[in-house]
Amino acid sequence: MTTLAVLQPGYLPWLGFFDQMQRADAFVFFDDVQFDKQGWRNRNRLKSPQGPVWLTVPILHKGRTGQNINQVEINSAVDWAGSHIRTIRQLYARAPFIDLYLPELEETLMREWHYLVDLDLELIGLFCQWLGLDRPTYRASELGIGGDRTTRLLNLCRHFKADTYLSGDAARDYLDEDLFKESSIRVEWQDYAHPTYPQLHGDFISHLSILDLILNVGKSSLDTLSLRHEHKNVP
User: Fold this and answer.
1) What is the DSSP letter of 28?
2) Count of CB atoms situated within 10 Å of the CB of 145
3) Each residue of 65-106: pLDDT tens digit?
4) How far is residue 202's CA from residue 45's CA, in Å, rounded to a whole number?
């Protein structure tokens, strides 16, 4: 059996993103679909004493309506990387594993990045390395597989000879399961049950960046992705 997952790359993605990677035999970054301005491609959330805070990578968007994810350029006139690093240092100064992971993260963020997708994929690769998560990954833009959204997903399954397509719940609004069934491909819905884990700054908050998990839990992060029991928060 072969399970395929296809997701748009994001900035510092949440736990569910990596849960899909963990459950797939092959993983495709859907990098040549339209950039969603209010989505997660260039931003994500960390935890502060006041609640979730956003880290956003500024992009060039004037006159670029309708551009695909792999066409989006970062606005290098803004010191976004320095700002993000300072915020992470401040919010996670007491996190148990900040000294282990922050130097490599800082080095990665401070490189000269031109395209958002390259930054996102480099960071995802770094997180996979830290998690010990090893899956073959591909960029949709390099596979030459066409069609509308659902047809492309179906054709990607055929390309990888997948008999199962693992999908996030958001796709329930548009994914035609019957088309997959006609090709003997089963659609499996992720239905991710978010685990809890030790956090700083009070009551637990879910659906943050994977970075929150890694800095608080360290090398146990991959196991925690699938945990369903409660933990006490770090004071």
Assistant:
1) E
2) 16
3) 889 999 999 999 999 999 999 999 999 999 999 999 999 999
4) 16
Under DSSP, the state recorded for 67 is -
> pTM of the predicted model, to two decimals?
0.93
- Name the residue with tokens 């922050």: 102
Q: Which helix (H) or strand (E) holds 125?
A: helix 116-131
- DSSP-derived letter for residue 40 is S
Other beta carbons within 10 angstroms of residue 137's beta carbon come to 17
**Residue 72 buriedness (CB in 10 A; 0-12 / 13-18 / 19+):** buried
Two structure tokens written together for 170: 């958001």
Closest CA to 42 of 90, 78, 94, 18: 78
How do residues 209-220 score in pLDDT, each as one tens digit? 999 999 999 999
Token pair for residue 226?
Answer: 């699938």
40 touches 13 (CB < 8 A): yes
Side chain identity at residue 181, one-letter code: K
Sign for the pseudo-dihedral over CA of 169, 175, 178, 181: negative
Q: Is the pLDDT of residue 228 over 50?
A: no
pLDDT in tens, 13-57: 999 999 999 999 999 999 999 999 889 999 999 999 999 999 999
